[in-house]
């Protein structure tokens, strides 16, 4: 520190001379106070310290600094680094001094040093010295030897590298890294001088864009609370590679509640994440497979039980028309006491029973062929409207008996398909709708060409089915009501809808079925107008 001295010729007035003299006295007193303080700290301070003027000349040093540097106080005071050290080292020290005096805040760094063949490491803080006018008049330095700690950190860094972990210690106020592991540079894939200096740099330069918001939120909360945090995110490498990272850290707050220091570590968990993802996918697939297997087993059980019920009930389904055929045939054979009207009626009963019996047998034979993949379509050209009229005629008695309102709106279209299968489909769909539509209900039939397909739909106002029952009624031999109960004694084989579904697929189309309890059912098919 220099004391200002001016000649009287440079003083414009007596007042200025007095002010300057007072200032000199004040500066001398301040300097003497500082020297007294340093003398008291000289041999007791467990750290090194020194002060320089703005020209980098040493003004004050303590004994600890003398011992560490190996030069006496007389050889240091009043000299610059160029007067003491080799040129290369002196140049580096001067560059650091100039940088510190240009900074608004102290500079903290870890400094390795080789003195007399002994490697030593120091934790150093350099700071500008400011006078009352806020002018920089010099700089100071305080440093602690951390050689032992540095050795431990080297061992720790080696362990981190083996474990795939990288760590850092970052001074937020000075915007500088105090320490970081070598593995951090490798893991980030950037040069050491490109490692983030701020929260924004850290996030924008390393975190995957889709995870920036999540990481920003975690760090923001930690910077307010000072609590420990954990977060997993994706890191986007300069090469374009994506790594999965697990980070744990803590942000320390100063006495004013402001973030001052940030320590943390990151671990590359890409392999673990991918293994975990594959395991979860495998478990999910296994769970779905198990659910599917359970559902298949349940449906198989239902189908098997339904098949058993079907076999048990066939005695009724087959015996009823057979008994009618045999009984009325015997009565006709005797031919006694009958008028012609009675004979005509018996003939109609025998014919109707035979038709019903043939229908039952045909359904069973058709299903057997379909299950054996031996059913082939025999396409011909025909009017689909004629098939619908036949279906209405065959189901007419039941529709009339239940006073059902039947509305038909279909395009009269010629198609090239299997006429017998199409007719069977329409008969079964209308029969099913009529069977479950209550007395006084309604059935609407619509048919139209859509994108090369002919779609015909039957909408009824019946009891409707639940989602579970919708699956069940498409299984062979299963019959249910809207309340989910079996329709024992309702007639039929439970093969109507399963045959419709499989016939539609054989024709290259699809079976459409929707139902809601209490509203009704919509069932139909969409088949190609021309089979290829």
Summarize this structure briefly.
The protein is of the alpha+beta class and about 525 residues long.
Would you spell out the secondary-structure blueprint of this structure?
Elements: H1 14-41, E1 48-53, E2 58-61, H2 63-69, H3 73-76, H4 81-84, H5 87-102, E3 107-115, E4 118-130, E5 136-145, H6 147-163, E6 165-171, E7 176-180, H7 182-188, H8 199-206, H9 212-225, E8 228-236, E9 242-253, E10 259-268, H10 270-334, H11 340-371, E11 380-383, H12 384-401, E12 405-410, E13 414-417, H13 419-436, E14 442-450, E15 453-460, H14 467-472, H15 496-506, E16 510-516, E17 520-528
Parallel strand pairs: 12-14
Antiparallel strand pairs: 1-2, 1-5, 3-4, 4-5, 6-7, 6-10, 8-9, 9-10, 11-13, 14-15, 15-17, 16-17
Helix pairs in contact: 10-11, 11-15, 12-13, 13-15
What does this 3D model show about the protein?
This protein is α+β, with helices and mostly antiparallel strands and 532 residues long. 48% of the residues lie in helices and 25% in strands. The chain has 15 helices and 17 strands. The protein has helices at 14-41, 63-69, 73-76, 81-84, 87-102, 147-163, 182-188, 199-206, 212-225, 270-334, 340-371, 384-401, 419-436, 467-472, 496-506, and strands spanning 48-53, 58-61, 107-115, 118-130, 136-145, 165-171, 176-180, 228-236, 242-253, 259-268, 380-383, 405-410, 414-417, 442-450, 453-460, 510-516, 520-528. It has a 5-stranded antiparallel β-sheet with strand order 2-1-5-4-3. A hairpin with a 4-residue loop joins β6 and β7. α10 runs antiparallel to α11. The radius of gyration is 49 Å and the shape is rod-shaped. The N and C termini lie far apart (104 Å). The relative contact order is 0.05. Mean pLDDT is 78; it is low at 483-490.
């Amino acid at each position: 520190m220099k004391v200002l001295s001016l000649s009287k010729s440079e003083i414009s007035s007596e007042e200025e001379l007095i002010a300057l003299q007072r200032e000199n006295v004040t500066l001398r007193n301040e300097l003497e106070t500082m020297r007294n303080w340093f003398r008291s700290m000289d041999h007791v301070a467990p750290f090194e310290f020194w002060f320089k003027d703005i020209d980098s000349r040493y003004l004050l040093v303590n004994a600890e600094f003398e011992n560490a540097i190996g030069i006496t106080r007389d050889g240091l005071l009043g000299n610059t680094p160029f007067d003491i050290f080799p040129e290369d080292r002196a140049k580096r020290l001067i560059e650091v001094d100039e940088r510190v005096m240009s900074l608004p805040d102290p500079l903290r760094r870890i400094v390795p040093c080789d003195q007399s063949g002994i490697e030593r490491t120091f934790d150093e803080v350099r700071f500008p010295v400011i006078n009352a006018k806020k002018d920089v008049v010099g700089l100071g330095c305080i440093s602690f030897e951390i050689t032992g700690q540095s050795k431990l950190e080297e061992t720790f860094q080696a362990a981190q590298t083996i474990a795939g972990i990288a760590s850092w210690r970052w001074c937020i106020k000075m915007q500088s890294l105090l320490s970081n592991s070598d593995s951090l540079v490798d893991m980030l894939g950037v040069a050491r001088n490109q490692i983030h200096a701020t929260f924004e740099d850290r996030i924008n330069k390393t975190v995957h864009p889709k995870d920036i918001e999540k990481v920003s939120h975690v760090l923001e909360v930690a910077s307010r609370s000072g609590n420990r945090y954990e977060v997993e995110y994706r890191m986007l490498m300069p090469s374009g590679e994506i790594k999965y990272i697990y980070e744990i850290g803590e942000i320390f707050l100063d006495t004013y509640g402001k973030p001052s220091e940030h320590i943390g570590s990151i671990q590359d968990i890409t392999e673990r994440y991918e293994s975990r993802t594959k395991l979860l996918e495998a478990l999910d697939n296994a769970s779905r497979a198990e659910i599917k297997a359970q559902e298949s087993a349940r449906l198989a059980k239902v189908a098997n039980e339904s098949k058993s019920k079907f076999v048990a009930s066939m005695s009724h389904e087959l015996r009823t028309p057979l008994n009618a055929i045999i009984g009325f045939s015997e009565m006709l054979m005797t031919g006694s006491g009958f008028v012609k009207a009675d004979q005509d009626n018996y003939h109609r009963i025998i014919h109707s029973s035979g038709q019903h019996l043939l229908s039952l047998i045909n359904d069973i034979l058709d299903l057997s062929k379909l299950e054996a993949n031996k059913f082939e379509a025999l396409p011909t050209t025909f009017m689909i409207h004629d098939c619908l009229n036949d279906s209405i005629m065959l189901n007419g008695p039941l529709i009339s008996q239940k006073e059902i309102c039947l509305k038909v709106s279909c395009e009269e279209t010629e198609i090239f398909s299997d006429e017998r299968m199409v007719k069977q489909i329409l008969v079964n769909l209308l029969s099913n709708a009529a069977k479950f539509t209550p007395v006084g209900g309604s059935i609407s039939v619509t048919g139209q060409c859509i994108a090369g397909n002919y779609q015909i739909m039957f909408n009824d106002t019946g009891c409707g089915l639940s989602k579970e029952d919708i699956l069940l009624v498409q299984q062979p031999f299963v019959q249910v009501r809207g309340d989910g109960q079996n329709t024992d004694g309702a007639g039929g084989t439970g093969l109507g809808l399963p045959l419709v579904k499989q016939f539609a697929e054989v024709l290259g189309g699809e079976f459409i079925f929707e139902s809601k309890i209490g509203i009704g059912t919509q069932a139909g098919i969409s088949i190609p107008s021309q089979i290829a």
